[in-house]
Each structure stands twice: as structure tokens, then as C-alpha cells.
Specification:
heterodimer; A: mainly alpha; ABC transporter involved in vitamin B12 uptake, BtuC; two-stranded antiparallel sheet; 4 strands; 2% strand; B: mainly alpha
Chain lengths: 328, 295
């Protein structure tokens, strides 16, 4: 196999463009790593959002379904980690894994009835789930401490080794994100991933090929929930503080922006989008308000003009046609 | 345990809010039936209605009626802008459904932030249309604004019914909802009809916002709850006819008011959203089976 063939089989429609982006991001990492300071935090959050987006990509990108309520699972992860470590003194890793399990079970319970819905109805039902979770996290003060949130959440670590240093945190998060992307890439090219993509092109066709559509949809939903929960836990351990606002509607819009900027349905897109969309507000930052406006405006423009994200740029000048977007 | 009068009192209050949800729900239906799009930014129109009316009343000192009419026209223009600048380009490019939903959510966020920057983030309210009151019936107090909401709601629903059934434009809109291609072949300008549906829907939302603001408050953030509750009302009503949506909204408002009495105000949205999930899962065509399209 030539290098080009390897690149295009491993990375799909991305090819050299993705390599160039990856190199650019690696250089950025190196620069931030040695410079330190505020951008370290920005990149840490980008890694965490990246984990979330890679998971969401399973459900929205590969399978072509819509979930506007993944923040609910991030909230489960975040609060699970916070409560287990702060109240009960658990090991962070153990809390993270247990929270993920809880989120997985929640995804089964919630997804089984909800995923029968399609289109607007699925979008609204998942949206409702996200909002219910937000309201509950505000109101159930005995469990979540309401708007106060949890502070003093210990950093990630195993036994006596804890990751306190900001640079080390960034490296750990980057490794975790890379692991997440690797799993996503392996699954995308497996029988499972091909089934998901078949569902995204046509559900009837997929069913005719013997794919159990509802089961695969549910599996994709669960995987997305596991990633989201892990992202929530990582947020809690990295920042050390969580409140309901962290997992609010803002999170939905921000993560969707990342997914669309990077290229929905691609392997590296969500991770790249998370880095780019996290740096974007730093470029236009003057007040917090303009940051939100920038997000919303960029998202709208992307949705209208480049709905396939940066992967569209990669395919300029190629003969390969861009596959029609996934129907919701 | 609350006593009977307290419960009745809050149910009556719920009636007013519910009627407003119903009006918002009609706005959802108008756009959905014309285009098949659910405009998640519907609540923005409600918020803008209240905010514009407040600004016109306090800063320019206009009388209530003038402020209301001007606000409704302004919000209708915002609705047209949203359609022309965001929805139509996506529509032309055959964007997938959830991309359009997402775009409307982003529009909501964008308009919220613009309102914070221009009008401020403080909650505000203005007096009821008719001062005095409330009307006392024994221990029950009924604010005069409730009668305004009832009256205006009734007038608007009747006017809408007449518009959809008796006028050429209204019939053209209904034709678009049944089959856009056939409608286009019959010479109906489908694109303008879409624009009209956004204007109409925005105007309805604005009217709802202007009516409800005196009984509570308005702020940049009220659009989310209003939009969601309006959508729930539309789902209960089955996305079919205006009266069904109004009944759906009223039901929702009353149930929510009851839930506040029993569970506390904090959980009112949780109750509403749970109702939404139940209706979605068991009555996908609405409680009245409506003529809503299956999705």
C-alpha cells in the first residue's frame, strides 16, 4: 500500500488535510505547553469537550440521529464523580467508571422508549430529557447542592499518584481523547460501524439487509452516553468545581458547534472541531457576551454554508462526491 | 396539604398561563403546517413581544394599544428576518432536519444575547391593561388580565379560523401544508407563503408575550420555558388545528399550576416535560388524534 492509500483508508475523506490539521494542532500544543498559562485551561476544556463530541458523533454522525439531550449524561458523570469523591471519598477513577455505568444504564432506560421516535419528535424528546436533568440538578439540592454546585473535587489520579500540574493534566486529557478517537475509529470501520452508517443512509434499506435498526440505534446512544458521562467526570476532576450551568443548554450549543465545525460523521472531525471551536472565542473575546454571539453566529453560518464542516474543505478538488447529509 | 381554595386559585392562574401556551402552540403549528419545520426559536417571539412592549411603554411613553400593535409588527418583522436569513437558505440547500432545528436553537441564543446587550438583562414588567382588580369571588381572586387573555385569545382563534378557511391566502397556506409541490403547480408562491407563516407565527407569539407579561415578568431568558411549553401544548393538541392547540395549552397550564401546588414551583418544568414524554410515547398524534402528520 502506498502512503496515500494508507492515509485515505485510515482517515476517510480527510487524507492530507487532516494530517496538516493534526500537525498544526500538535504545534499549537507544543507552544501552549511551553508557554503555559491561561491557554492551558482552554485546551484542557477542549480535550474534555472533544471526548463528549467524539461520543455524540456516534449517535449523530455515524447513525444520523439527533440527540439534543446528551448534556444529561454529562451531568450524570459530573455529579456522580463529584458526589462520590467529595461526599464519600471514593477514588476518582472508580467514581468515573461507576458514573459511566450509571449513565449507561440511564441511557438504556431512557433510550429504549425514546428512540422509537423520529425527526422532530426525537429531537424534542431528547431536548426535554436534557432540560429535565438541568431542572432536577438545580432543584434537588440535597443531592446536587443546587446552584451552589460542588467544589473541592479532587484531581484525577490512581492511588497516591494524582495529576495536579496543569501541564500534566493536559497531557492526560489528550491521551484520553486520543484513546476515545482510537476506539471511535476502530468501531467506525467495524461491522458495527458499517451498520450504523447504513442506518444513517436509509433505515428501511438497513433493515432489509438484516440490521436490527432499533438495537443498533440504542447501542450508539449508549456509547454516546458513556463518552458524555466520561467527559462530565473529567470536567469535574479537571476544574474541581461543577454547577448546573456547566451542563445546561449552553453545552448543547457549544458541542454541536464543535461537531459541525470539525465535520460530523468523520473520525477526527469532532476532536479537531473541539479544539478549533474552543480557541475561536479566545480570538474574538472581549466580553463573555460576545463569546456566545460568536458561537451562535458561527454555528448558523456553518449550518447554512458548510454543513459538513472542515471536511468539506478537504474534499475540494477531489472527484469523490460528498455524500448527502444524514436525514434526521 | 393545600386547601381547596388555594388549589382552585392556582388552577385559575394556570388557566391564564395555559391560554398563552396555547397561543404559542398555534404559532408552532402555523409554521409546521406550512413548511414541516419546527421552529425551536418560537419562544423568542414571546420574549421579544414583552420586551418591545415594555420598552415602548416606558422609554417612549406610548399608550398600551399603540405599544402592543407596534411590538407585534416589529416581532413579525423579526420572524420574517429569521426565515429569510436562516431558514430559507438552509431550506434551499435541502439541509437535514436536525440541522434546521439546531439553527433555530442557535437563533434563539443569538437573539437572547442581542437583547441582553441592547435592552439589558434585568427582569421587568408593566401594569395590567385594566387597572384595579382583582375580581373577588369569595376567597378567590381573579386578575382582570385573565379576562384580557381570554378575550384576546378567543378573538385570535376565531380570526385565525376565518383566515384559514375563508380567505384565499389562508387557503393557499393550507394547500402548502398538504402538498407543497401541488400547491406550487397551482401557482401558489410557496416561498412567500413560508415567509408569511413565519410572520404570522411571530405575531402570535408576540401577542402572547404582551398579554402574559403583566401577570409575571419578562426577561431575556423567558423564551426557553415559553417555547418549550408552547411546543408541549402543540404536541398535546396534535399539531393539527388552532382550537386543539389552545385546548392543549390550557390543559398544560392547569396541570402545571396543580403541580406547583403539590410539588413546588421548582418542578413545574419537570412536570411539563414529563407530560411531553408521555404524550410523545403514547399519543404521538396528540390527545385528540388531530390531523397532525405522522413523523
Amino acid at each position: 500500500m502506498t502512503l496515500r492509500a494508507i492515509i485515505s483508508t485510515k482517515l476517510g475523506a480527510y487524507g492530507y488535510f487532516a494530517i496538516a490539521l493534526a500537525v498544526a494542532i500538535a504545534l499549537l500544543f507544543a507552544w501552549v505547553f511551553f508557554k503555559g498559562g491561561y491557554l492551558l485551561t482552554v485546551l484542557q476544556l477542549a480535550m474534555i469537550y472533544g471526548v463528549f463530541c467524539v461520543g455524540l458523533n456516534f449517535f449523530m454522525g455515524y447513525t444520523g440521529q439527533a440527540s439534543f439531550g446528551q448534556n444529561a449524561f454529562a451531568a450524570i458523570g459530573g455529579y456522580g464523580s463529584a458526589i462520590l469523591t467529595v461526599q464519600y471519598g471514593w477514588e476518582p477513577i472508580l467514581a468515573l467508571v461507576v458514573s459511566m455505568a450509571v449513565a449507561g444504564v440511564a441511557a438504556v432506560v431512557v433510550g429504549y422508549p425514546t428512540l422509537r421516535l423520529r425527526g422532530h419528535y426525537l429531537a424534542m424528546a431528547t431536548f426535554a430529557l436534557g432540560l429535565i436533568t438541568y431542572d432536577v440538578s438545580v432543584q434537588w439540592t440535597d443531592l446536587t447542592q443546587g446552584y451552589m454546585g460542588y467544589s473541592g473535587i479532587p484531581p484525577l489520579g490512581i492511588g497516591p499518584f494524582t495529576v495536579e500540574d496543569d501541564k500534566l493534566k493536559l497531557v492526560c486529557l489528550a491521551v484520553i481523547l486520543a484513546l476515545g478517537v482510537w476506539v471511535s475509529s476502530r468501531l467506525r470501520h467495524s461491522r458495527f460501524g458499517r451498520a450504523l452508517r447504513a442506518i444513517s443512509s436509509t433505515e428501511l434499506g438497513a433493515a432489509a439487509l438484516g440490521i436490527r435498526v432499533s438495537r443498533y440505534k440504542l447501542l450508539a446512544f449508549i456509547i454516546a452516553a458513556l463518552y458524555a458521562s466520561a467527559a462530565g467526570s473529567l470536567f469535574a476532576h479537571t476544574v474541581g468545581f461543577i454547577s448546573p450551568e456547566v451542563f445546561g443548554l449552553q453545552m448543547v450549543v457549544v458541542t454541536f458547534t464543535m461537531l459541525y465545525v470539525g465535520g460530523i460523521g468523520t473520525v477526527l472531525g469532532p476532536a479537531i472541531g473541539a479544539v478549533i471551536a474552543s480557541l475561536l472565542p479566545e480570538v474574538v473575546r472581549s466580553t463573555g457576551r460576545f463569546q456566545d454571539i460568536a458561537y451562535a453566529a458561527v454555528l448558523i453560518l456553518m449550518l447554512i454554508f458548510v454543513p459538513k464542516g472542515l471536511s468539506t474543505l478537504a474534499s475540494i478538488g477531489r472527484r469523490r462526491p460528498i455524500k448527502a447529509g444524514a436525514e434526521g | 396539604m393545600p386547601n381547596g381554595f388555594e388549589l382552585l386559585q392556582s388552577l385559575i392562574n394556570g388557566l391564564g398561563v395555559g391560554l398563552v401556551y396555547g397561543l404559542i402552540a398555534i404559532g408552532f403549528c402555523v409554521i409546521y403546517n406550512a413548511s414541516g419545520i419546527v421552529n425551536f426559536a418560537q419562544g423568542v417571539f414571546v420574549m421579544l413581544g414583552g420586551m418591545f412592549a415594555h420598552t415602548l411603554l416606558t422609554r417612549l411613553g406610548l399608550p398600551m394599544l399603540a405599544a402592543a400593535v407596534i411590538s407585534i409588527v416589529l416581532v413579525a418583522m423579526v420572524g420574517v428576518l429569521v426565515q429569510v436569513l436562516v431558514i430559507n437558505p438552509m431550506w434551499q440547500r435541502k439541509a437535514p432536519l436536525f440541522a434546521i432545528i439546531l439553527a433555530t436553537l442557535a437563533v434563539q441564543l443569538l437573539i437572547e444575547q442581542i437583547v441582553i446587550l441592547t435592552l439589558g438583562d434585568q427582569p421587568r414588567t408593566y401594569p395590567e391593561f385594566t387597572l384595579g382588580g382583582p375580581l373577588k369571588l369569595g376567597p378567590i381572586a381573579i386578575g382582570y388580565q385573565l379576562f384580557w387573555i381570554l378575550g384576546c385569545g378567543a378573538v385570535m382563534v376565531v380570526a385565525l379560523q376565518l383566515f384559514f378557511n375563508r380567505t384565499r391566502v389562508g387557503r393557499a397556506l393550507r394547500a402548502c401544508s398538504q402538498n407543497r409541490e401541488a400547491a406550487a403547480l397551482l401557482g401558489i408562491p410557496v416561498a412567500s407563503m413560508l415567509m408569511l407563516s413565519f410572520a404570522l407565527s411571530a405575531a402570535l407569539g408576540a401577542a402572547a408575550g404582551i398579554l402574559i407579561t403583566p401577570t409575571q415578568y419578562t426577561a431575556y431568558s423567558v423564551d426557553g420555558p415559553f417555547g418549550i411549553n408552547g411546543f408541549i401544548a402543540a404536541i398535546i393538541g396534535g399539531f393539527g388545528s388552532a382550537p386543539a392547540a389552545l385546548v392543549g395549552g390550557t390543559l398544560l397550564g392547569v396541570v402545571q399550576a396543580g403541580a406547583i401546588v403539590f410539588f413546588g414551583a421548582g418542578y413545574k418544568n419537570v412536570v411539563a416535560l414529563t407530560i411531553l414524554l408521555i404524550v410523545l410515547l403514547f399519543f404521538p398524534n396528540g390527545l385528540f388524534g388531530g390531523w397532525g402528520k405522522r413523523v
